[in-house]
Amino acid sequence: MKAILGSLLCYILFIAQCFAIKGGPQYPVGSASITGTYSGVLQPNFDPTDPFSANSLGVFTLGIPTDGASTGTFLMFARGRIFGGSIQGVANPNTGTLTALIFGTFNYTLEFIDGAGMLQTLPVTASVTGALNARVTSTSNTFSSSSAVLTGAATAFISNGGVQQNGDPTLDGSLSLTVMGFKQSDTAAASGTLTPPTGTGG
To answer: What is the assigned CATH class of domain 25-185?
Structure first.
C-alpha cells in the first residue's frame, strides 16, 4: 500500500512540474503597472565596418501614462554632432511592450562659393530618425521605481540633410541600437528635459 501511495505521489509531483511557470514572475503581477517615467541609453552595437558605431550614444527620458501616447525627449551624439528631438509611441499595459518613433535634428550653415565667385550660405538640417521596440519587465513582484527596467532595440537612420531627385532623404548612415532603461518614478511626467547645445557647424 505504501509503495502504491509513494508511486502516486511521485506521479503528482511530476505532473505539477510540467505545468509550473518558468522564468520568474510573469507580467502582470498583482497590481503591477508600467505607468511612470523612464530614463535610459541607446547603445550602438559594435560594427567593425562602421567607425561611427563605436563613437555614438543616445540618451532619453520617457513618460508612459495610464492612457494616451507615450512621449519623451531624446538626445544622440553621432557623426560628430548632437541631435536633439523627441520620442513618441504607444505602450501596451497588457503585455508591457513599447513601440515608438525617435526623431532628432541638428541645424548648421553650409558655406560655399558659387559660380560667380561669391560666398553663399545655405541653412541645412541634419536628422536622425528611427523606430524603437522595447519591453518593460520587473525584477521583483511589483513594478516599483527601483525594479522596473526597459530593454529592447532600435534602428536609427542618419541624414546630413541631402535630398534625392525623387524627394527621398539621402541616408548617410544607420545604427543598430540596444535600448537599456529604468523606471525613475510612478508618475508619467518627465522629471527633466534634454536640451542640445546651441550653435552651428558642418
So the answer is: mainly beta
